[in-house]
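Re: weekly structure request thread

Next one in the queue (462 aa):
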Amino acid sequence: MPTNIKYTLSISACALTLALGAIPASAISSALELVATQDATEYKIVKSNNTQLRCGDQDVFYAIAELNANTPLQVVGASGTYTKVRMPESIGAFVPANEVDASPNAKTVTLTVDSKLRAPSHLLGLSGSWKALYADSLKSGTVLSVLETLVSDAGDTLGYRVSPPKSHTGELAIAYIKTDSLRDPKVGEVANYDPASGQPVKPEPVADPIAEPAAEPAAEPITEPITEEAIEESAQEVDTSMIEEMDMPSDEPVEITNSAPVDVNEPLDTPEPTRTAPSGLVSASALEDLQATFDDARSLPKSDLDESLDELQAEFSRTRVQAEDGSSLAAALDQRLEWIDIRIQTRDQRRSIAAILASYDANADQMAQDIKAWQAGRAYQLVGHMTTSAVYTGERLPLLYRIQAIDPSSGATRTIGYVAPTAAQDFRHLLGRVVGIVGAMNNDDALNLTIIVPDRIDPMPE
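Done, posted below.
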């Protein structure tokens, strides 16, 4: 444990002792244990791809990310069948726009209220991210680094994805992963690993005054749009030994005629030596056209962009085949293709969810009739769809499960009551099912609904 943390705790303990007369030994022990646990350096490795990292220690909590195999994670504790790990900084946390002020360049935001931030929902975005990331709020005035600006379809800023810092009390951003999804690291597997960024730390190169100067390293894959400088650089890499001299365009306006895309390797009726270099290399003018098309597509409305993604993928893939592997041009094209692939996956996932919701709406009336018939034939006090509550999670408020039914007049789903399981009852396997409940019923005046302590819960046959 760092020396400065010990000193701070010691001073705090003395101050509180003078003010209140005494501090229970267990309280000081718990505080020391928290700091010691979160400063631990034990690591575990993710076993397989698509392993879910969750915001809580039960399967009912939503996933915040899907991790790849061999991802190192810093362990800070255990909770049931889950392991508590330090959340990689790259995953980030959500904060609504009404809780922060953004800097002029939107690189940072400053909290205007005390906030616990939100664990980001991998599937539902900001609207579905309800779980607090910290036990104690970050103070107003805390500056947060922005990873992504969250905007609506209309272009309004809804919030930000930010790097989760260590709080003023020393608390880290914590996530949960199934213990049996982890393995012990092999020798050297987590060497120079930075748990905050989730990336290995690259050692600084040491210059050798006697050795020959090292060759310049290969350019890193770019993440910014292709610039004029990058286009000029890629143009310099083109082998021009076989290209005929071409007339440079004048300042006079020219008429542009659109034509269907063609394979650059296919012979043309009218050769265009100014468009394509031989040996499969790409000319600067062709790159300019491709980048302009990419920029235009990014400015389209979401529905139009969705329809254009497959076309963009085809054109960038066609050009990537012609680029020399290992060149800066190939790296730039790979970056564009990765961006397009991510958008295609997001589009397909969005369409799949819409199809499921449409199917649910079509079956809602039939389900309501089935529930009504089932309830009429049995002596149940509540019958409905059992789901979790975002408020009554059992962490700070009691654990309650919602019972929802479909309103026959409006067709909307509404809560008709709550189930309050005892400590010895575990009904998590019934979540998402239509159930019938028998038990002691109590009316809650504040909720204006019934809370039932169940003696028995029967699932409706599927």
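The chain has a mean pLDDT of 74. The longest helix spans residues 328-376.
Next request, please.
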